[in-house]
Amino acid sequence: MSAIVSVENVSKTYHLGKTEVPALRGVSLEIHAGEFLAVAGPSGSGKTTLLNLIGCVDTPTAGVVRVDGKDTSVLSERALTDLRLRRIGFIFQSFNLVPVLSVFQNVEFPLLLQGGLTRGERQRRVGELLQAVGLSDHARHRPSELSGGQRQRVAVARALVGRPRLVLADEPTANLDSTTGATIIDLMRDMNERDQTTFLFSTHDQKVMAHAHAVVRIADGQLQARETLQAAS
Amino acid sequence: MAPSLGPARILLRIAFRNLFAGRAKTLIIGAILLLGTALVVAGSSLVESVDRGMRSSIQGSLGGHLQVYDDRSKDELALYGGMGREPQLEPIIDFSRVKEVLSRVPNVKRVIPMGIDQAMVATGNQIDVALEKVRADVRRIEAGERDDDLLRHYQAHKAHVRRMVTLLRDELRAARVLADDQLLQDRKQANEDLARAAAPAFWDGFERDRLGNLEFLENRIAPQGMEGGMTIVRYVGTDLDAFLEAFDRAYVVEGQRVPKGRRGILLGKWYAEEYLKLKTARRLDKIKDARDFQRRTIAGDEEVARWVKENTTQVKEILYQLDPIQAEEAAARLRRALPSEERELPKLLVQLLSTTDQDFDRKYAIFYDQLAPLLQLYSIRVGDTITIKAPARSGYFNAVNVKVYGFVHFRGLEKSRLAGVMSLLDLMSWRDLYGYLSPEQTEEIRHLKQVAGAQAVPRERAEAELFGGGGAAVESQRASRIDEAAVLARIARPAKAEDLSARVYSQLEIDRGVVLNAALILDDPSRLAETARAVDRAQRAAGLHLKVVDWQKASGVVGQSVSLFRIVLYTAVLIIFAVALVIINNAMVMATLQRVREIGTLRAIGAQRRFVTGMLLVETMAVSLFFGALGAGLGALAVWIIRAAGGIPAGNDQLYFFFSGPALLPTLGTTSVAVSMGIVLLVSVLSGFYPAIIAMRVTPVEAMAADD
Asked: Is residue B179 very low, low, confident or very high in pLDDT (cuts 50, 70, 90)?
């Protein structure tokens, strides 16, 4: 089984003034299709950096990141953007919906950027997803009219609407209470099971971690062991 | 389906929704842009309309399309006068050459000779007028007529003159207290004459030598009454027929044109109203004008009230004009019309002239219907011969007597001082006043010199001839050569004084001689610049030493005032849009910084950079275009409303000229609308530029940042 993502001996160093801050130090990781993988670690451990590198929003200082078989460090800005658009879905800690667009329009947005679908096809696909995340009745609402949990569901729908091969979620439950957080993780896992979409999410919450198939632990910019959690399934 | 249609739609949707979301900001930016474009459209429409009005005023009254004058002139041509004086222009010695050369240039329709100057005019003499009546009576009496009516009028006319002489003596006696010894010595004879004329003995013995006494009064006394009766007249010496044909705004309002080839003057009607009209009548006209056209009232306006007061205190001027019989008639008429029981004419006049807002129109009508027919309203009448005195280039005063054939108005500019102060004088009289000679006069002088034994000496050889030295370089001074001729002309003239007014000059005589400048009328005014260049080439080729200027340049300070309006307007517009630029830029930068997370998210999800920059540009452009169009519409509406309301009234005579009529009717300039929209677009693109760059630099990483 080929890897959707392969990270080979990747380092990332940030410059804060004159001091160099190593965020990742020689990280290697492979993610395979259909996985539901959690990256766990305390804050500052390098979780977000790893997700940014895999999400093609940042490039490594050393090492190679391959997404869908492509080395991200040799792609142009435009090609990286296109890769994100067609292959990756994003779920953010702060939901990051476009405030002036309705729920439906937020979800539809990536489809419009991708192009190629008719209005009817878009409506059907957005409708299906809104039903799947349980927000069919809120299609016309603005994000400001929704609760945090509902907003994150919209974000999940938006991440999945373009049928990406990989969905990245950086601390998706950090801004939610634990019950709501758990339902979001469950929703993500349902989606993973339904479409076999690969999920990679970061968290520092033990309870959230428990919902993943597998967990990679990260500390001080280095990966620890990869644990497969039997209990979860 | 085009692949980019989807992104474009969502881009517009987000952009517009953002505008509505930030309503307050959008409205502030919008208001500034609205103000700016409204000002551009309304302001430039007004300025262009003034420009058109002034163009029409200048071109139609004096300027023509182009003007030429000698390029060696010290000053620049200023048709409406320079800074407080007439510009010093080097003369064009032979106009016929200029006419011949320039008439051949394509698109030149007419070449009108001109010379503008100011001079003094004796504005009639009340004693002369009164003496004229006495003389007419005397003529009939000497012829043997003896009817009662004639004798009664004769006595009345004599009494009128006697009263005037007495008043004049009293006036001069008062003045003598202030004068120095030398002046008294000079005036000794005049004072003795005056004393004699004022003495009862003179009038008791008047009948013994009517004609002799009359002559004494006419020659010795009347001239003394002339002092103070001078005004300055500004005139253009020109080929009168060609002028009236070329300048369609000029028309004879009273009297007639000067017959072809004759000497004569057409006085500016405005000038006549302002300077020659009986002061009381003039003030009544001004009060009427202020009330009818400027919405001023006697009760509410200090100046108007002052005119009323001056009219009631200065009735003497009217009394001075009336002989006893006329005075009685005037009193009778006023008693009937007012009506009043008052016996005394002075008091009746005061009653008539103490007007209020309620009775002004009635009393104005009484003045013109009842009193005016008994008065001489203008101190110079059509048919009078007036004496114009002007300082010639030599420094001597030249004087010509010229008949007033009529009054001239400039259509649409009836109330404008700039146009209406101008009188039209025949070119021959103008040349006499200016001190230049026609070739024919030069010939006459040559003849006189020969008779006197003088020898014509070429200037280059003058020194050698006179002092016998070797030909030293003599600086050629054109002015002095002409002065010399002018002085001689004065000597020559008296020989043929009286017949001048009857002489008919040929076109050749009119054309061959000195002028100061010439107006060019074009067939197609739109090709003005091109024709100006052609004229310049032609005059250069012919060696005429001319400077070619357009009507605007030729009009001097007046022409520049529109440029000044324009500069003021454009400065205001520039400031407004500069402010708009800064404010929009600021607001958009703020908005962009506030939306860094949102932009980062869009980028992370897969929006390209150009999507984000496009979104911001659409936002600024949409606001700019919307409010710009609204502002342009508002400006257009303002222009329309001004038109519908009858235009902007010309509050003073200066504006009358700029507006080319009693009101400015602005028309909407299509270019001004286009220009305003162009400026708005430019401002929006410029102000959206920096925020767009900021937005472009936002990386998707920004979307990942956690709330804090």
From this structure: low
The SS3 of residue B523 is coil
B160 near B132, Cβ under 8 Å?
A: no
Residue ranges of domains in chain A = 3-228
Question: Any idea which architecture A3-228 has in CATH?
Answer: 3-Layer(aba) Sandwich (3.40)
Query: Does residue B284 fall inside a structural domain?
Result: yes
Instruction: List pLDDT tens digits, range B621-660.
Output: 888 889 989 999 999 999 999 988 888 887 777 777 778 7
A80: distance to nearest CA of chain B, Å? 9
Contact B604 A86 (CB under 8 A): no
DSSP 8-state symbol, B222: G
- Residues of chain A in contact with residue B13, where contact means CB-CB under 8 angstroms, are 101, 105
Q: Which domain holds residue B368?
A: 278-377
- Interface probe for A, chosen from B594, B602, B605 (most Cβ of A below 10 Å), is B605
User: Are the beta carbons of B519 and B114 closer than 8 angstroms?
Assistant: yes
The dihedral built from the CA positions of residue A83, A85, A90 and A95, taken in this order, carries a sign that is: positive
Q: Do A94 and B6 touch (CB under 8 A)?
A: no
Q: How far apart are CA B352 and CA B333, in angstroms?
A: 11
Asked if A94 and B605 come within 8 Å (Cβ–Cβ), the reply is no
**Predicted confidence (pLDDT) per residue in B323-378, tens digit:** 888 888 999 999 998 888 888 888 899 999 999 999 999 999 999 998 888 888 88
Chain A residues close to B599, C-beta within 8 Å? none
Domain identity same for B264 and B413? yes
B interface test, pick of A76, A77, A92 with most B CB neighbours within 10 Å? A92
Which of B150, B299, B307, B164 minimizes the C-alpha distance to B225? B164
